[in-house]
Amino acid sequence: MTEMYVSDSLFLNAEALDEKRWIIHLSNGKTIAVEKEPEYNGQTWEWRIDGQVFGKDGYALDYLKRLVAEKLTGKRIILHQKRKVPEICGIEGRACRHPGECNTMLCSNCPVAEKFFADRDGVELVYAV
Fold this sequence. Notes:
- By secondary structure, this protein is α+β, with helices and mostly antiparallel strands.
- The protein is 26% helix and 26% strand.
- Strand 4 (39-40) and strand 5 (43-44) form a beta hairpin.
- It is globular, with a radius of gyration of 16 Å.
- The termini are far apart.
């Protein structure tokens, strides 16, 4: 399904770089890189979208749709209130065990991780509540 969204002219109609890599050119000039079956840490994944890897097509497609909307609007809406940094990570995350990675379950809903990913993706972080 993700491949259809990327390669079909009725959907995102991305520029094909080769058989497994595309670049989506958005109307505001921003781009999204998409790669099918990338190698990451010695393992083959189904998709890599702007550096984020996915093992399931459905997750990749959901992320791609959200990323398109975010890059077009410049905003990432977080559907919960801003939470506190986990205590194990120290005051404001200064003792974070994975700085610049934010890739553990502990990082879920952590404001430091949410800001990290928003900055990486070039979008403004907005808490809905």
